[in-house]
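Researcher: Before we compare anything, I want clean individual predictions. No alignment, no superposition, just each chain on its own. First chain goes here; please echo the sequence and then give the structure tokens.
Model: Echoing the first chain and its structure:
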Amino acid sequence: MANEYHLQMLQHGVVVWNTWRIQHPEIRPDLSGADLNRVDLYAFDLSRADLCEADLSKADLIGANLSRADLYRTRLSGADLCKANLSRADLYKADLSGTDLSGADLSEAILSGADLTGATLSGASLSGTLLIDTDLNGALLQGTDLDGAILIEANADRIMCKIAP
């Protein structure tokens, strides 16, 4: 259950939130189970936040910092995560279907059991990412860095990628 104070701080906007995060680096924001559907979280610092089972469907997370965040079973379908930092984030069983992750940093993230059906990963970094039993059907992987990524039993029957000549 999300911490009410943390939710209130989030509602004050990006400047107040990010300033609060700088002033209180010891606090791990608890936004677990929160309904943040369609919320504007553009450039928010959500690093190390607990967002387990939160609903971030269709949220604007462009340029957001979600590094080391706990996103277990989080609903992110249709969210805009362009250029977001998700390095070392735990996205185990997260719903990322139809999500735009263009240019996002997912290096060393855990995407096991995640649903990336129809997601756009163009120019994203999945370097060292764990993709066990991940659904990549219909995902766009043009220019995606998969160096050192571990794909085991990933469903990638209909991925779309453009091969350079």
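Researcher: Okay. Second chain, same rules.
Model: Second chain and its structure:
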Amino acid sequence: MAGVNFSKGLEGVIAAESAICRIDGVEGRLYYRGYSIEDLAARSTFEEVTYLLLYDALPKADGLAAFSRRMRRSRDIPPPIRDMIRSFPPRAHPMELLQSVIAYLGGYIEHVIEHSPMCNCRDTLHQVSQLASVVATYWRFRQGLDYVPPREDLSHGANFLHMLHGEEPDPEDGAIMDACLTLHAEHGFNASTFTARVVASTLSTCYCSISSAIGSLYGSLHGGANERVMAMLEEIGDSSRAESYIDGALAHAEKVMGMGHRVYKATDPRAIIIERSLERLVERKGERRIYDILKECERVMAERMRAAGKPVYPNVDFYSGAVYHLLGIPRSLFTPIFAMARVSGWLAHILEQRADNRLYRPRSLYSGPEPRPYVPIEKR
């Protein structure tokens, strides 16, 4: 097969058409269904963005009100699932719990997919609404605390903080959390989204597709970068040591977490938005140390990469971990939060895949041995 071209990791390969997300990596722009992430993060709730992703358009007031009611009434976790969360192996990762919970929730639903590309996924919003409830409840049970019932008068982000901490969040904290979910709701054919579409192409259920996407996100090369940013900040400790840390990392060809992106060749637009949220949190809560380290790391990286002719810019993970930290969220929940936001995008892609479905079946370039005779075991 010498001379045959292939793209390792499907780099640059166009696998399908999609009307959901547009990423302009050169200019650093991101759009959901044609709407800029800047407008959506500033002016829409996560619930409205979920509606947009699932129904292709922004809703009118009465449509959003009805959709929000459905989402909010789906937040409460049934007692059997609470029992499952409480008894899940203590040493298991919460992402493994999310995979299991999605499969459990799927058992409550009568799936309508046989012999039809469409299904009833838009009507069964448990997979979107309850992931946030599961993440919060997981943490409370691990701390020996009681289940906090959801509130229908709070936004999706604010209700998550309420269920996590057991008290109503500051209104701005709730708004920032909700905007963070919007920023992470969708991002094209990333690994987890592509995984969801591959499973959906078999006409499996949306719950199976989402469970597989969670498994993909669990991998260290996809989710969890903001956790590693926070670990980096802890290692640096103080902004005065940021320069020596960055120089040491670059000298050993080590990756500086939160810097650079596979698609964006300019600053990730989500990083710009989330940094503003971090600035507001720092100003209100008076915790500058982490922010000062981040800004010094950004300054040093910009200088070093510019000098090397390889400009590198912050991505959304560079600041998001610090935002979650100031919202009182433990680091072990950072990747599950990614999942509870991205589930809206996954579901949108599952529906789009089914609307014009073709089973994914790529080929591989064989590199094994040529045909050879079988040797009986006694003669080997």
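Researcher: What stands out in the second chain?
Model: The CA atoms of residues 278 and 284 lie 10 Å apart. Additionally, The domain at 225-326 is CATH 1.10.230.10 (Cytochrome p450-Terp; domain 2).
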